[in-house]
Amino acid sequence: MSELITLTIDGVEIKAEKGTSILRAALENGIYIPHLCDHQDLTSVGICRVCLVEIEGRRPTVSCMTPVEEGMVVTTSSEELDMTRKVNMELLILHHDYDCQNCAKNSYCKLQELTRYVGIDEERISAMRAPALDFPIDDSNPYYQRDMNKCVLCGICVRTCEEIQGDECIDFAFRGIETRISVLGDKPIIDSTCVTCGECVSRCPVGALVPQKAIEPTYEVETVCPFCGCGCNILVGARGGKLVSSTAVEDSPVSGGSLCVKGRYGLSFVNSPERLTTPLIRRDGELVEASWEEAISLISEKLGQYKGDQFATIASAKCTVEDNYVLQKFTRAVMGTNNIDHCARL
Amino acid sequence: MYERHILICAGTGCISSGADKVQEALIKSLQEHNLQDKVRIIMSGCHGFCEKGPLFIVFPEDVFYCGVQAEDVPELVEEYLIKGNMVERLLYKDPVSEEIVINHDKIMFYSKQQRLALRNCGVIDPENIDEYIIRGGYLGLKNALKMEPSEVVEEIKSSGLRGRGGAGFPTGMKWQFCLSSEGAKKYVVCNADEGDPGAFMDRSLLEGDPHAVLEGMMITGQAINADEGYIYVRSEYPLAIQRLRTAIRQAEEYGMLGENILGFGFNFKVKIKEGAGAFVCGEETALLASIEGRRGVPRHRPPFPAVEGLWNKPTVINNVETLANVPLILRRGAEQFASVGTEGSKGTKVFALTGKVNNTGLVEVPMGITIREVVFDIGGGIRFGKKFKAAQIGGPSGGCIPEEHLDLPIDFDSLTAAGAMMGSGGLVVVDEDTCMVDLARYFLSFTKKESCGQCIPCRIGTNQMYDILEDITEGRGKPEDVALLEELATAVKKGSMCGLGQTAPNPVLTTLRYFRDEYEAHVNEKRCPALVCKPLLQYYIDAEKCIGCQRCIKACPVDAITGEKKQPHEIDQELCTQCSACFDACPKKVSAVVVVSEGLKTEEEVEVCEEGCKCQS
């Protein structure tokens, strides 16, 4: 247990672990400080300037980058702070495509949340010079699309790619108002080193990165990803009896809240009419549907006819670690051979 | 034995006006007269008086010839060097008194200056370490090496030296933080990423006295226990880089740089890192990121570089001019340094004086001198007898100081209080013909492009302010724009992450503070009082003055002018694009073309025009 520090935020005395930022300490103690570029999984950078606070005896600063100190007195709202934050948000909104109704992030959008909290002056926005928002949508990737007209340049995707996935396929490019997130050479995403893990898509606070043809599920079920032996915990969403979404379980002890391209975007096979739902047994040269009892007794009967090196096992990466352990044990101990191999990957 | 020494300024300014050709012509001419063994040519660093370049000073008599071109050289050699007759047309003429001044120290431009940081610039051959040493070079280092690091820090603290790069942070305190930071490896970084348009004091120092900067870095190294230094210099300064490389090589050969320097057991090496031209890399954390090979963008502070700097090691970053002052303090003592300047700002400051003054160039003045002295004494007053309007101090992030503050003593604190800042020392003088709204627009056009794009207020705010200013200067301003600009400027100043965004609104805020009436004339009356903003101007031909010469008709690119020969001409306001070609074409003694800014008419007013057209008349 590390050292606890006592500080006051908006008159409320709270305790936080040493090294925590003011922003995280406040949020953990139920005090909301508006913020955009900060994300609990990533290093803080303090670039959105939304989480500005006043600290007694100092100039206003961003709370995400300031560690808590003993006896600190923090104010999250004052006339000056509110005004600076408001204008900041208005500038951001001016450069954001406000087609909320057609946006997949509608009602999950961080910008909407901030706008509600900060409150904006419509009159001032209409007095500002609005830019033409005409970036073409990059839908080159089959699983997600990028709309720079909605991007708020919080850099969460960049840090996710670098810190979570270790891919570093995107970064800030250009300068000033031309700044945007880009892959090497400013090419379509599909021509980059992106592995489509979707980690950035899941963290994008606005509608700039959304899954292709996102469908809102009616209910979600927690399960284990059927793809590989890792066994990541996932939430699959269904609508009309069909699987429509798959997201990571944030506190999954297996994956730490991450998923790969297969677990996130590769589950559509579940809905495929070609999917096998019963075992098949070849009879007279034809594969015929059979019950599990029939199939298993056939296998056991056949296995009894072989022994030692007459036999080999090919295990599957789709099985869990436990399944594969049992399988190799069976091969070695029961069948008496070391002839066991693995399909290595899917 | 040489009888004479001729100093030819080889700063970038003089070279671009032909100093290297003057050198060639002089070598040739001396050989023709067999004087090559009697006259020595020294290609010096910048003398500061760039406007009058190339400069050609003859010693020992100190005769100051200016604006010398290669074709003037034979005359100078034959008439002056051989016959001893002054070549009057190449001597300096005072713009106010019109008197000829022979010696350079009698010229007002120089006599009011106090050249401490620039002590060797224009005096020594920057590519010769011996000349630096003869003038006391590396003595400051020797003194520092005899002292404990903390004593060196104390010396700088008591000198009162403050950073010359912009913010004016006390140098001694910065060193103290770094000395106190834990860690075996520390760095000294010289910030030579001089990016303010018009400012060139760092370039002149590096070109004219590179050893002073190296010595300053080594003293810093001794003070904070660092053994390695980086000079981050713009790649647009090839001459500075070349002279720095020469200086580093020479210092290494002399045992002034490298291992066991001067036998004191102190080790120090210096590397040069060339910047790629981003203005924001002058911000210290962006500069460090750039040295490390990352995208040159600032990061949040704290931690300050003195605690976590280059490759996360404690690092002192000082500006070129600051470092050039350091050897002087260690050589002559803190007390002497502190005897110059004001209470809060000690020593001198180099300014790049430009704009509508008679004498432009690089000037070093004691802190506390008034703007009036700089503009009217050193600068020789406003060109063509026009009226002073404002001084933009501190580069694109500085502020405009109006006439009523002419007697303001220049120091870090007074300038900040007036809404400007010392910045790197750009000083642009503007006269009555300058539109302050247009000036603010111009500076914003620079900062908005140079914003790194990370934080919202700077990225979008500077761009938004620029768009509004552009609209105002083009006649699309709305009355509510003035208040909007003020709100935006305040939010950008308070909300931005680094110095760039925090200071970019200064030109807007100061022009709003001191010249609000000009904004109001633009937005409310669609009028530009300084007659600068073209879309708000109207050109007329005074029928009484017009002699009907048709020159304006020929000059007009859009055929907006009609008229018979010897009959008064007329400008069709609907066609006129305010290009000013007619104004320029009209003979000066006729001056029949008049430019006014009477205010554009509103849409409704235009509708009721008798002729039924959309003219403005």
Describe this structure in words.
The complex is a heterodimer of chains A (346) and B (617). Among the domains of chain A are: 124 residues, Ubiquitin-like (UB roll) (Roll), CATH 3.10.20.740; 61 residues, ADC-like domains (N-terminal domain of TfIIb, Single Sheet), CATH 2.20.25; 37 residues, no CATH class. Chain A contains 9 helices and 16 strands. In chain A, the strands form 6 sheets. In chain A, strands 2-1-5-3-4 form a 5-stranded mixed β-sheet, covered by helices on one side. In chain A, helix 2 runs antiparallel to helix 3. Helices cover 38% and strands 16% of the residues of chain B. Chain B starts with a strand and ends in a 10-residue tail after the last helix. The chains are: A alpha+beta (346), B alpha/beta (617).
Question: What labels would you give this structure?
Answer:
heterodimer; A: alpha+beta; Ubiquitin-like (UB roll); N-terminal domain of TfIIb; five-stranded mixed β-sheet; 9 helices; elongated; B: alpha/beta; Glutaredoxin; Rossmann fold; 38% helix; 16% strand
Can I get a quick summary?
Chain A is an alpha+beta fold. Helix content of chain A is 24%, strand content 20%.
List the helices and strands and how they pair.
The complex is a heterodimer of chains A (346) and B (617).
Chain A: E1 4-9, E2 12-17, H1 22-28, E3 52-55, E4 61-62, E5 73-75, H2 79-94, H3 110-118, H4 122-127, E6 144-146, H5 156-165, E7 170-173, E8 180-183, H6 199-203, E9 209-211, E10 219-224, E11 233-239, E12 242-248, H7 261-265, E13 280-283, E14 286-289, H8 292-303, E15 313-315, H9 321-334, E16 340-342
Parallel strand pairs in A: 1-5, 15-16
Antiparallel strand pairs in A: 1-2, 3-4, 3-5, 6-9, 7-8, 10-11, 11-12, 13-14
Helix pairs in contact in A: 2-3
Chain B: E1 4-9, H1 12-16, H2 19-32, E2 39-44, E3 56-59, E4 63-65, H3 73-82, E5 92-93, E6 100-101, H4 108-111, H5 129-134, H6 139-146, H7 149-159, H8 171-180, E7 187-192, H9 201-208, H10 210-224, E8 228-234, H11 238-253, E9 258-261, E10 266-275, H12 284-291, E11 315-319, H13 320-332, H14 334-338, E12 348-355, E13 361-366, H15 371-378, E14 388-393, E15 399-402, H16 412-417, E16 426-431, H17 436-450, H18 456-473, H19 481-495, H20 499-503, H21 506-514, H22 516-525, E17 538-541, H23 551-555, E18 561-562, E19 570-571, H24 581-585, E20 593-596, H25 603-607
Helix pairs in contact in B: 6-10, 6-13, 7-8, 7-10, 9-10, 9-11, 10-13, 17-18, 18-19, 19-21
